[in-house]
Amino acid sequence: MPIVVQLICDANCQDQQDLQKIYQDAPGWLFAPFGDATQLIAQCLEEGALIAARFNDRLLGAARLQRHQNAWRLSHLCVRNVTRRRGVAERLVSEARRMAAQNGAELHLLAPAGQLQAQALAAKLKMPLNES
């Protein structure tokens, strides 16, 4: 079964649990400007800005996708620790990039300044990186 990437507008109980598991091992800097995973998830759901990767009805990775006219910004990207290094983030980014292009926009990675993990991901995926 393939990894399915989708916008999550209404997270059921299982999705909420999966999202908490995704972000439980995330570094603290990933949550800014939010206080924690719960605030991040709630705000993204409220904005309709949560994109997630699903496999066998379980969420494995998620990110915030802010859609603007000319540029879409992908931030707060995280994959569950037990499923990292299996292409989940690349699949999520690839689908977000496709969605942005379909809407005439370019996809940018947004991360706090000086975060080497974000810089490495942007370089690997050949994406513009906006540091805040």
From TrEMBL:
Record-annotated N-acetyltransferase domain positions: 6-132
Domain of life of the organism encoding this protein: Bacteria
Biological processes per GO annotation: pantothenate biosynthetic process; zymogen activation
GO molecular function, one term: acyltransferase activity, transferring groups other than amino-acyl groups
CDD domains: NAT_SF (cd04301)
Pfam families in alphabetical order: PanZ
NCBIfam families from the UniProt entry: matur_PanM
Stated name of the protein: Aspartate 1-decarboxylase autocleavage activator PanM
Upper lineage: Bacteria, Pseudomonadati, Pseudomonadota, Gammaproteobacteria, Pseudomonadales
Name of encoding gene: panM
